[in-house]
Amino acid sequence: MRRNLIVHQHFERNRYGRDWVCGDLHGHWNLLMAILGEKDIDLETDRLFLLGDLIDRGPQSADILNWALQTDNVFSVMGNHELMFIGGAIRPGYREEHRRIGGEWVDELSFGQYRNLTTKCANHLPLTMTIETAEGPLGLVHAQSPVDDWCELATIEYTDQIAIDCTWPWNRATGPGQSIAGVSAVVSGHIGTQDIVQRGNQLWIDTLETSGEPTLLPVQELVTLARRESS
């Protein structure tokens, strides 16, 4: 992939409201809006962090992607579906692969809309994030941590391999309960699970496909859960 992506983005602690993390959404924008209302999330002061895979499979991929890119206090890491979406604008082979995994909705976009959205994704969706919380730093990455020490991400330069390592593999979710150093917890989506999966201080919360609803939790609860389970 010729376009360099953002490897890491850091967020200071939210002094004005609550921070929330949500698992994969796959085009279910109305469902997300309903859950935000149920939890009384106010994006004037609260911040919403998404774990990637906003698009494909569901009925509102373009809507949710545009909303996430344009709405203040909404942030997302890059998922493997966004990575394929961007790649499809560069290499025809990627476009066909993206179509096979739920990207048919892109056929309805004009060429200009397609290039505009892929450029915005590349410029605004980092591969990893750190959120400072009252309970310590929380790491976010779509698939799993690409490093054993989270602090390394502050100095890693972009390569296509680091993009793949952040968005595709899930061997850490099936292996022994290793914790990632340099961070209180690492939260990911990607793997499709009925309940939250925990290994050491790592959590996977992609429950949409199996339960019908995405997991949406405050950051303090996620850090506390990871600490309790990894102790």
TrEMBL record:
Domain of life: Bacteria
Calcineurin-like phosphoesterase domain mapped to chain residues: 20-153
Gene Ontology MF terms: phosphatase activity
Gene Ontology cellular-component terms listed: cytoplasm
Signal peptide: none
Name this protein carries in UniProt: Serine/threonine protein phosphatase 1
Organism for this UniProt entry: Marinobacter segnicrescens
Lineage per the UniProt record: Bacteria, Pseudomonadati, Pseudomonadota, Gammaproteobacteria, Pseudomonadales
